[in-house]
Structures are given as C-alpha cells and as structure tokens.
Amino acid sequence: MPIVVRIDVELAKRKMSVGEFAEKVGLTPANVAVLKNGRAKAVRFSTLEAMCRVLQCQPGDLLEWVDEEEPPT
C-alpha cells in the first residue's frame, strides 16, 4: 500500500504503550493495531486529530505516501 502508517515510530519516541495511546485517543487497542499494521482502509479526520493531539505531532508524522513505482535507493 502506498500509504505507510508511522504510529509505532511516534509511540516509541514518546515511550508510550499502545494501551495508553488507545485510551487517550478513544480507540480500542485492537483498532490501534489495525492502524499500526496498515490494515485500515480509512481514518476519520476526528481520529487523526485525536492522534495528533495526544502525540503532539502533525498528520505527516503519522502518515507517509510511498511511491510503489519507484525502486528503493
């Protein structure tokens, strides 16, 4: 998938557990796992806003577009 979710990186930077993050954002740990593992088909803006508020980051810190056509360097 060309959109890569970087929640795990931001959680590691803050030494925050998935459970703590899920509670603060208002998601279940299972739904956070779906997001982290790139299995989500969509993310509500309200959820993205809550994640950014909890992690004090920008949406681009959590989501990255990767061109699948271009070979890795």
List keywords for this structure.
73 residues, mainly alpha, 434 Repressor (Amino-terminal Domain), 5 helices, 2 strands
Describe the protein's architecture and organization.
Pfam families: HTH_26 (PF13443). GO terms for molecular function: DNA binding. Residues 13-62 form the HTH cro/C1-type domain. This is Putative transcriptional regulator. With 73 residues, the protein is mainly alpha-helical. It has five helices and two strands; from the N terminus they run βαααααβ. α2 crosses α3 (29-36). The longest helix is centred in the C-terminal third of the chain and has 11 residues, at 45-55.
What's the arrangement of secondary structure elements?
Layout lengths: L2 E3 L1 H8 L3 H8 L3 H8 L8 H11 L3 H4 E3 L8
Helix pairs in contact: 2-3
Beta-strand portion reads 5-15%
Count up the domains. Answer: 1
Shape: globular
CATH class: Mainly Alpha
Which architecture name does CATH use? Orthogonal Bundle
CATH topology call: 434 Repressor (Amino-terminal Domain)
Output the number of helix runs: 5
Structural class: mainly alpha
Order of helices and strands: EHHHHHE
Radius of gyration: 12 Å
**Major β-sheet strand ordering:** 1-2
The largest sheet, given as strand count, sense and whether it forms a barrel, is: 2 strands, antiparallel
